[in-house]
Structures are given as structure tokens and as C-alpha cells.
């Protein structure tokens, strides 16, 4: 089969920093939810062991791309002799806080584990994903999650699944710059999952990003005309607002300034990748019969 596998975007519904560790990393609290919009990848299994990525990504050498690194890591871990030609349809902006690169890596692990018949379990794939980036495991596991620690300790959650309008104000935020900023608040009082689901929580990085990146501040101010509590995802630069219906989100989308990239999407507590993977497995079982 030669189908397009989804690599969905994620939104950080809130982000708190509760402390800083001796090693320099930050203790976090955040909540991830997927949306039904993202990149797409197509995989063609080959008899040789080469990994070939067809993608038009400026300033990202193929060997440094998380997709190639994920494929090679799975290949070496499972002692797989096969290779793959991977085609990427890039829809998510880089540096926007939507997790595009991490999602691409997770889709590569999940898809090639099946296509190469490696047989690794979800925990094993998540462990490989953590070697590639802190966000990769949540995409591998494929369920909306509460995350703590440095973002690697997950608890499944089931928040509401509204419609979102997401705006990329055409600027890229450097995560390292935000986490190293002197003015960043690093002592948030921890909140509970119940508190978050009841409406507590904010993005503690927003004031820093707004100060350093005026386009993000402009996008948040613009969204505030149409929705209550527009928010930045992760360390930015994408911002989002929630709506009760697709039509409400689409109505606002029509007014988004032309120099910003924007899209509407449905919140998903089960990742579109996991839905696709389960359908893929069922189709294989039907074919086998």
C-alpha cells in the first residue's frame, strides 16, 4: 500500500513552568491536544537499506531531518534490512509551536514499524521517539495528554474537542531563546488536571514572546476581537482560539489578514495518526483473509 499517513499538529492548551533543574532544564506542566490538520507522509518500502526523503525544506539537510533520523533509528534498533523512499507534504510552518517536526518523526516511527513489520510495541516506539525530541512520544502514543517533568511524563486526558482557528503570523520563534530569557516566569504554582479541565492555566511564555516578537502580539490582539482568551501554543509563534462550531471558526478565518497563514481544525483527543493506523491494520487483516 502506498498511502498518505497523517502527521497532525498539536496545540499546547496551556503551558506553565514550575521550576528549573540543576541541569538547566525546566519542570513543566502542559496539556496537548491534536487537531485534524497537519503534514502528510507517503512511504515506499525498498529492498535496499537506503532512506531517501523527498521534501522541499529550506536550510534543513536531509540527514538532519527528524524524519530521516527516525527512520534510521528504527532501522538500527529493529535490525531491519529494508529501506524506504519517504515523500513529505509539508503543511505546518516550522518554528510555529505546532510540533510539525516531532509529529513527522512519530508518523515515521509508527508507519515504518508496520510497513517494515518490525513488531515494536508502543512503549518501545515512544522510547525511541524520546531520543529524537521531548514532544515525539506524545505523537507516538496518540492521545490528548497532560504532561509534566520536562514534558516526558504523560497522563491521558479528555478535554472538550472544540473547533480552532490557528494563525501563523509569519515569524519563527526560537524556543531556546524563550527558555533562556531572564524575564521568563519559572515558579508557577502547580495546578491539577481537574483544575485545568475547569478552566485554570495560561501560557506563561506569552509575555516574553510578545515582547520579543511583535507579530505574535499583533496576532493575539487581532484574535481577541473575535474570541475570548486567544492563546499561543508552546513557545509560539502560532496562536489559536477556540470556537463552538466549524462555521464560527470559518467566519473568522475569512477576515484573517492576507499576510498571515491560517487554518481551521477540529480538536481531537485521539490522534488522526492513530485512527489511520488502526484502519490500516484492519485493511491488512481483511486483505490477508
What's the layout of helices and strands?
Blueprint: E1 4-20, E2 26-46, E3 51-54, H1 66-78, E4 83-89, H2 100-115, H3 122-132, H4 136-141, E5 145-149, E6 153-156, E7 163-168, H5 175-179, H6 193-197, H7 206-212, H8 214-223, E8 231-232, E9 239-243, H9 246-253, E10 261-268, H10 272-288
Parallel strand pairs: 3-4
Antiparallel strand pairs: 1-2, 2-4, 2-5, 2-10, 5-6, 7-9, 7-10, 8-9
Helix pairs in contact: 1-2, 1-3, 2-3, 7-8
Q: What can you see in these coordinates?
A:
Helix 1 runs parallel beside helix 2. The mean pLDDT is 94. The chain is globular. The chain has helices at 66-78, 100-115, 122-132, 136-141, 175-179, 193-197, 206-212, 214-223, 246-253, 272-288, and strands at 4-20, 26-46, 51-54, 83-89, 145-149, 153-156, 163-168, 231-232, 239-243, 261-268. It has 289 residues and is an alpha+beta fold. Strand 3 (51-54), helix 1 and strand 4 form a beta-alpha-beta unit. It has one domain (1-289): Ribosomal Protein S5, domain 2 (2-Layer Sandwich). Strands 1, 2, 3, 4, 5, 6, 7, 8, 9 and 10 form a 10-stranded mixed sheet that branches. Helices cover 34% and strands 27% of the residues. The longest helix is centred in the C-terminal third of the chain and has 17 residues, at 272-288. The protein has 10 helices and 10 strands.
Amino acid at each position: 500500500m502506498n498511502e498518505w499517513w497523517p502527521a497532525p499538529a498539536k496545540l499546547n492548551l496551556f503551558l506553565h513552568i514550575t521550576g528549573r533543574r540543576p541541569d538547566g532544564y525546566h519542570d513543566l506542566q502542559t496539556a496537548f491536544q491534536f487537531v485534524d490538520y497537519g503534514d502528510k507522509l507517503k512511504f515506499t518500502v525498498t529492498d535496499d537499506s537506503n532512506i531517501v526523503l523527498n521534501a522541499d525544506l529550506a536550510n534543513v539537510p536531509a540527514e538532519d531531518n527528524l524524519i530521516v533520523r527516525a527512520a534510521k533509528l528504527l532501522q538500527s534498533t529493529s535490525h531491519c534490512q529494508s529501506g524506504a523512499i519517504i515523500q513529505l507534504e509539508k503543511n505546518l510552518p516550522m518554528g510555529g509551536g505546532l510540533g510539525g517536526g516531532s509529529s513527522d518523526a512519530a508518523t515515521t516511527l509508527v508507519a515504518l514499524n508496520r510497513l517494515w513489520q518490525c513488531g515494536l510495541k508502543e512503549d518501545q516506539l515512544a522510547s525511541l521517539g524520546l531520543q529524537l525530541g521531548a514532544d515525539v512520544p506524545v505523537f507516538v502514543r496518540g492521545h490528548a495528554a497532560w504532561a509534566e517533568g520536562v514534558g516526558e511524563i504523560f497522563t491521558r486526558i479528555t478535554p472538550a474537542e472544540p473547533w480552532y482557528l490557528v494563525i501563523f503570523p509569519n515569524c519563527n520563534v526560537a524556543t531556546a531563546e524563550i527558555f533562556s530569557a531572564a524575564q521568563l516566569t519559572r515558579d508557577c504554582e502547580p495546578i491539577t488536571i481537574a483544575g485545568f479541565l475547569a478552566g485554570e492555566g495560561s501560557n506563561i511564555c506569552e509575555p516574553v514572546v510578545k515582547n520579543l516578537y511583535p507579530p505574535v502580539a499583533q496576532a493575539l490582539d487581532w484574535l481577541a476581537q473575535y474570541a475570548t482568551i486567544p492563546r499561543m501554543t508552546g513557545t509560539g509563534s502560532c496562536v489559536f482560539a477556540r470556537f463552538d462550531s466549524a462555521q464560527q471558526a470559518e467566519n473568522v478565518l475569512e477576515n484573517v489578514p492576507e499576510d498571515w497563514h491560517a487554518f481551521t481544525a477540529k480538536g481531537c483527543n485521539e490522534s488522526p495518526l492513530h485512527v489511520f493506523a488502526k484502519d490500516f491494520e484492519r485493511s491488512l487483516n481483511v486483505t490477508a483473509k
